[in-house]
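## retry 2 of 3
previous attempt timed out at serialization; input unchanged, resubmitting
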Amino acid sequence: MNKHNDVIEIRNSRFKSTILFLACFLFVACSIWLLKIDPSNIWGSFVQNIKSHEKGWIFVINIIFFGAGSLIFVWRFFDRRVQLRITRKGLYSRVGRQKTASWADITGINVVKIRIPLSFGITICRLIHVPLREQSEPKEKRRFSFLPSNFKNISKDDMAILTELLEGSHKGLFSTLKEAHQQFSKPEIKH
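## retry succeeded, writing output
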């Protein structure tokens, strides 16, 4: 987290990206090992072991899914662009869709926890929801049946900041945004 004269810049966390890369890489390595692929004849042994394995397609899906995850986390490790910038004028976010909002347009800052259905309340990720003031035309609301009801209130025009891969803690980022919103959303008195 970089702070320069009322500007706070937040980038991707290299530590979190490294941990998630290692987890994905471990799944890929285990799937390849369980398929018992011969390094001298990779493609031939790969196809043969998939055919001989009763559930070989599960290993292939693991290799594709977690292999793509590994590549994404390597990319996020080296991506040093600013993901979130907090200034006196407003908030700039590259997390999700690129968006800029002035403090006057932000109506509040909330935390939304996303849980897996039937998971006994296990939170898989947290979003910081930044609702924006109504524009001239009414907003179309997103409808996701598998997400909690508080997530359904996020419209396409609002900011939804996924904080899990950013520098710093979720609580620290949330409190920083709340403080900045309280400090900068008040109109300046000109003499």
